[in-house]
Specification:
Largest sheet of chain A: 7 strands, mixed
Helix content of chain A: under 10%
Radius of gyration of chain A: 13 Å
Number of strands of chain A: 11
Distance between the termini of chain A: 36 Å
Shape of chain B: globular
Order of helices and strands of chain A: EEEEEEEEEEE
Distance between the termini of chain B: 41 Å
Strand content of chain A: over 45%
Number of helices of chain A: 0
Number of helices of chain B: 0
Number of strands of chain B: 11
Radius of gyration of chain B: 14 Å
Strand content of chain B: over 45%
Order of helices and strands of chain B: EEEEEEEEEEE
Structural class of chain A: mainly beta
Largest interface: A-B, 29 and 26 residues
Shape of chain A: globular
Oligomer: heterodimer
Helix content of chain B: under 10%
Amino acid sequence: EAQVTQNPRYLITVTGKKLTVTCSQNMNHEYMSWYRQDPGLGLRQIYYSMNVEVTDKGDVPEGYKVSRKEKRNFPLILESPSPNQTSLYFCASSPTGAFSYNEQFFGPGTRLTVL
Amino acid sequence: EDQVTQSPEALRLQEGESSSLNCSYTVSGLRGLFWYRQDPGKGPEFLFTLYSAGEEKEKERLKATLTKKESFLHITAPKPEDSATYLCAVQAGGTNAGKSTFGDGTTLTVKP
């Protein structure tokens, strides 16, 4: 089944404790992206990657890191989480490339609480 | 800076009562406008892509249209199962290729 998977689905942590949220897709998509969604708001893009070893900042990259060493994986790293990073996080992938712009397929979300 | 504004924030309809959702956008070099449906606690699901002004797409009770400044999602004779949040997003091109900007969504409630 074609899908985007995220782990963990739920996480409660404390301020300053480094964490990684994994994202994997099995559709051979070049494009992957991370978003956060806060109550009553749409999705805000954190980072995106057009291909392996290529990453770019979205609108809200502060406090986050990403890497794209393999096509299928795009982990989101919070090196020193703070309470304002409490949010619902979505990973997405897309067949979008340098000259084609296509819909995104979203994972089920990771609900993160930072105490 | 790219911007997407959706209205209304919330819309309550009776079953069978048609209406439209609006998405106004400003983006440097629009490469695609996307509509998604999101159910509570779940990831968005793709509905439509529109690439150029004048384009229209239909799927069951939904029809999306695009002008140079806005897009509409028309819902004809909605049913309770159409209740969800509808998100509009734009994707830029050029040096910002890959950057996606979402609106805050319109939450639709359809009562039987």
